[in-house]
Amino acid sequence: MLENIAFQVVNGLIMGAIYALMALGLNLIWSITDVPEFSQGGIYVIAAYGGYFVTVSARLPSFVGLFAAMATGAVLAFSFEKLLYRRMRGMTLNLLLTAIALFFLLANVAIWLWTPKAKFLPPYVAGEVGFLGLQIGRQRLLVLVLSALLFLLVNLFVWRTKLGKAIRAASQDRETAQLMGINIDTVNSVVFGLGGALSGTAAALISPLYAVYPAMGDLPLLKALVVVILGGLGSVNGVLVAGSILGVVESLGAAFISSAYQHGFAFFILILVLLLRPRGLFGRM
User: Fold this and answer.
1) Which segments of the chain does DSSP mark as H helices, in order?
2) Integer distance in angstroms from the first to the last C-alpha of the chain?
3) What is the pLDDT of residues 102-155, one digit of tens each?
4) In whole numbers, what is the pLDDT of the chain averaged over residues?
């Protein structure tokens, strides 16, 4: 019993890490634009296929595929900001509708280019390893390790660099930040590129555990939105905590209540948070 609980907790932390990675980019973008960037779900899909193409079709090493997915996500998000969102700045409804349209467009592009059939990738690292008394797949452990490393790097970037301070200033008050000499265009480009890279990384890490298919971004996007709201808008640490909570609750709920309700747990938590603490655990929402 205890071993099963421990296994489900570890499994939940792994899924929570994927939710949190995607939510981190979404959180940064949302805090700057005041609009949830739904196209991250489509970017997640295309980045996963980019990693698949490099790894399986081009037969390059798996870690090259990981970087390819990261780069694909960054380039797509950067391009959308530069070519579309920048022209709509201040038009909240237009931004929201464009983001939703891009989400569906990218999913359909994936169907057109690669067909609806699921694709499968080999793991970056095969085999199992003992972890906290459990046998955990090395690929799953890699998800935890790389996610933790990325969160550390993003935290250092946001809090210790000049550009990171500019991002925090712009998220608090865009107009005042501009008056202080901060280049909002540069801040937006960096934040969108970083958000896309994080979504691409999340997609690449999870692909070998499940599959690559055109609708694979739907649930991660919804879960990332829940994580952002639960953790609090503008809070990097809040995203990490919220992602872990959501992943563990889903995993334990599926194991000991019913897997049929697994995805419902996330939205039950969302409703509770919106009722009891609308700004999230750590944020300023």
Assistant:
1) 2-33, 39-52, 62-83, 92-114, 138-160, 162-172, 174-179, 184-206, 218-231, 236-256, 262-276
2) 39
3) 999 999 999 999 999 999 988 888 888 876 677 788 888 899 999 999 999 999
4) 89
Class for the domain spanning 2-276: mainly alpha
Report the pLDDT averaged over residues 59-75: 93
More confident residue, 135 or 54: 54
189-205 pLDDT per residue, tens: 999 999 999 999 999 99
**Phi, psi at 154, each rounded to 5°:** -65, -40
User: Can you read off the two tokens belonging to residue 266?
Assistant: 């996330």
Which residues neighbour 3 within 8 Å (Cβ) at sequence distance 6 or greater?
133, 134
Query: Distance between CA atoms of 10 and 100, rounded to whole angstroms?
Result: 33
In sequence order, which residues have a C-beta less than 8 Å from that of residue 201 and are 6 or more positions away?
A: 21, 66, 69, 70, 73, 146, 150
